[in-house]
Amino acid sequence: xxxxxxxxxxxxxxxxxxxxxxxxxxxxxxxxxxxxxxxxxxxxxxxxxxxxxxxxxxxxxxxxxxxxxxxxxxxxxxxxxxxxxxxxxxxxxxxxxxxxxxxxxxxxxxxxxxxxxxxxxxxxxxxxxxxxxxxxxxxxxxxxxxxxxxxxxxxxxxxxxxxxxxxxxxxxxxxxxxxxxxxxxxxxxxxxxxxxxxxxxxxxxxxxxxxxxxxxxxxxxxxxxxxxxxxxxxxxxxxxxxxxxxxxxxxxxxxxxxxxxxxxxxxxxxxxxxxx
Length: 276
Known about the structure:
By secondary structure, the chain is mainly beta. The protein has helices at about 1-20, 70-75; strands at about 25-30, 40, 45, 50-55, 60-65, 75-80, 90-95, 100-105, 110-115, 120-125, 135-140, 155, 160-170, 175, 185, 200, 200, 215-220, 225-230, 245, 255, 260-265, 270-275. The chain contains 2 helices and 23 strands.
């Protein structure tokens, strides 16, 4: 009973604090002030006590009760639990600093009922009849971490992305990412071997190749975050015949990885991360 009362009191305190807010802020990937935590956009509070803001051509955002830089902004973030369902009122909570992704690109009106800890996303932009596949790029020191058609992956299904004919040296850092470092932003902390599948990490360290290569093909499978950097004829697939050594994610050596286990594999001078 005491725990239940404490829980009710905590929720009531959050609701009271939120409803007493002088302002609620928003930043995202649109307009002149995009991703500006110091001077973000502001919601407008209506006579009914509901806060609202209408975006333009948005794909992702963050909402907060504070501003003044990212540390302050992230301390006050409000995040919808369970993801966005267009048109529905959703419960939100503080603490999750991840980006909020809109169901599709367009003009969205966001409403916040701070008293009931609810938020709603509605749009006048029709849902696309065909899925809008993400644009994926190889971004790194070779292109000033920017985006261009020369470094853009092609895809036919929005899951398997291919970039062919790439010359890249082992001293260049890079990542697999979309144009906004949003939903797709993958790296890896160890050198990536050629012709060996590797499971990348979301928001991971910058990638580097274990060895330089010419005419390389980068194949990235989005749903399992697997990257394979292939040589023109798979030359490295049979060159490295050293016995593999397996380690768990904590770095402890293991003899026989169980099926489905995510492991670090060291084979000769090549280190990769794989799911067995």
